[in-house]
Write a structure and sequence with these properties.
Blueprint (H helix, E strand, L loop, with lengths): L9 E6 L2 H17 L4 E6 L1 H6 L2 E5 H4 L6 H4 L1 H18 L3 E5 L2 H13 L4 E4 L11 H8 L2 E4 L5 H5 L5 E3 L4 H4 L18 E5 L4 H21 L4 E5 L6 H8 L4 H4 L2 E4 L12 E5 L2 H9 L3 E5 L3 H10 L7 H6 L6 E3 L5 H12 L2 H12 L10 H14 L2
Parallel strand pairs: 1-2, 1-4, 2-3, 4-5, 5-6, 6-7, 8-9, 8-11, 9-10, 11-12, 12-13
Amino acid sequence: MAELIKTNKNVLIVAGDASADMHGANLIKELKKIDPELIISSIGGVRMKAVSNHLIYDLVSHGAIGFLQSFKSITLWVKLIKLIRRFLEEKKPLCVIAIDFYGFNHQVLGLCKHRNIPVYYYIPPQVWASRPGRAKAVAELSKEIFAIFPFEPAIYEKYKGKVSFFGHPLLDIIPEIQPKSFGKLEENSQVKIGILPGSRKTEIERHLPLFIESFSIIKSVYKNSRAYIFAVPEISDKKLYDLVSQADGEVVTSVEIIREGDYRVRSQMDFCLTCSGTATLENSLLGIPMIVAYKMPEINYQIAKSIIKVPYISLANIILKKVVVKEFVQKKADAKFISQEVFSVLNNPQKYKSISSELVSIRKMLGKKPVAEKIAQKILSGLKSI
């Protein structure tokens, strides 16, 4: 365990989306366990706010992320840069911890480099998927990088970056489980469908109606089916119900909004309709068969298509290097196609168990817990030597 730091106690942590906010909050808890006197300020969301000494700005709720959204939010970004510059000059923090969100955090790296403030990059940009040139900047400007996938260290080491891999932080919060099995369905079977439409407002607006329409088709066959929307804190119940209410009454009354941090209800799902992102890896660790869908404005899609270098959008498929869960992108993200795939899995118990087993196998590829605790120890040990 690192010695308690006896001088300046200020630390700044910057995260830009719901997933990074969750992992940032868990890291803050571990840092404070080791040194309760740390004064942690954050730019993030409600999760980091709950455990920080001071939330500078709730960037996650603002949701200013995306190819075109970033241009619309230039005024906010200028404001945030000013806030961070002032914080660095007035508080002279021990370090800054950047979590994912390269579009903004690369500017934070530059500000810190100019002031000789060490930066730890936790959850580095997914340069293996797109824009590999970012690896060089991260390697050069970070004191240390904490990778979350076993294949990432080699990428940053190529540019002489100092990289550690302790594991994926989801291992800390999702319990180890056995593969799920599923019996033969009858017309009156109660099928539990999890719906994970995304964490950003625009994602939810695009995906929730699609998933509700898909659920409606499922419910037309299995009458007692119920859907559970797993919602992030940043989106209100009213917003979700406004989108759900477009369906017919019987479907609406079969939909429930779930807000949880322990995956207790999620683990009970029979199948999930999932937006691409961290949720796909969460479902994998829970052994829940799923489909993965993603829709975006066509101009964004064409830009993404030109820079993304991996053949899949689901982390499960990327890690396993094959199609284990079906993906539905853009025009293929259609309720008819999605429901057909759901039926093909639910009506085949052998296929269902095989998919669940392959998803659960991902866990052993992602390191060993405790992850956040080890990273917190490494950061404070590194600061001790400055």
